[in-house]
Amino acid sequence: MADNPFLAAFGLIAQADPALMQIIGLSLRVSLSAVAIACLIGLPLGAALALVRFRGRSGVIVTFNALMGLPPVVAGLVIYLLLSRSGPLGSLSLLFTPWAMVLAQTVLILPIIVSLTRSMVEDLWEEYRDQLRSLGSTRLRAVPTLLWDGRVSLLTGVLAGFGRASAEVGAVLIVGGNIAGHTRTMTTAITLETNRGNLGLAVALGLILLTITFSLNGMAFAVAQWSRRRGG
User: Fold this and answer.
1) What does the pLDDT look like over 44-54, one tens digit per residue?
2) From the centroid of its chain, how far is CA 2?
3) Using one digit for the tens of pLDDT, what is the confidence trace for 200-220?
4) What CATH number does the domain containing 158 carry?
5) Any residues with CB less than 8 A from the CB of 48 and at least 6 apart, and which?
6) Where in the sequence is the domain holding 113, given as residue range(s)?
7) pTM of the entire structure?
8) How many separate domains does the chain show?
9) For residues 10 and 209, what is the distance between their CA atoms, to the nearest angstrom?
10) Which DSSP string do the residues of 173-206 spell out, in sequence order?
C-alpha cells in the first residue's frame, strides 16, 4: 500500500508538500502571465484584423491560423535562438528563466487569441453593422462594444490558450531548462519524476493539473449558461 502512487499523491497534496506547492505556483504564474500578455496583444490585434482592410490582410490571417498549430518544440527552438548568448536578445540574459518560459508560452497562445477574436468580431460586425453605423460608430470605435458583446466567446478562447500553455512541455523545457526550484513546471516535473520512478509526485501534479483544467472549463460553462439565461 505504501508503494501505491495514488496514496502517495494524496499524501503530498494533503500535506501541502513544499516542493509540490512551489512547482504549482511557478506553473500558474508562468501560464497566467503568458495568457495576460497574449490577451493584451491579441484582443486588439484580432479585432483590427477583423475590421481594418489593408493589402496583405489575407496573408496575415492565414499566417495566424497556421500558427495555431505551431509545434511547441519549434516555438521553443526559435525563442532559444533569440535568447541565447549569440542571439539578438542574448544581452537580456533571459534564457533558462521563468520569463523565457512566459515568452515561449505567449508565442503559442497569441495565434489562438488573435484568430478566435478576429472570427468573433467579424461575425458580430456583420450582425450589428447597420445599428452601429446608425449610431455614428466607425469600425474602430465599435471595437470595445464588439469585444464586450462577445466576452463569453472570448473567454472560451482565453481558456483554450491557457489550456495549451499549462499543458506545454517541449517549449518550456527548451527555454527553461527544467531547473529545480527555478524553472520546473508541472508538465516538465511530471515528465522528469515519471522517468525517475517518483510516481507519487508525478501523479499529484497530474491530479492538480486536471483539477485546474476542469475547474476553469466548469466556470466557463457556468458563465456561458448564465449569459444565455440572461439574454433569454
Assistant:
1) 999 989 988 88
2) 37
3) 999 999 999 999 888 877 877
4) 1.10.3720.10
5) 140, 143
6) 5-231
7) 0.88
8) 1
9) 14
10) HHHHTT-TTTT--HHHHHHHHHHHT-HHHHHHHH
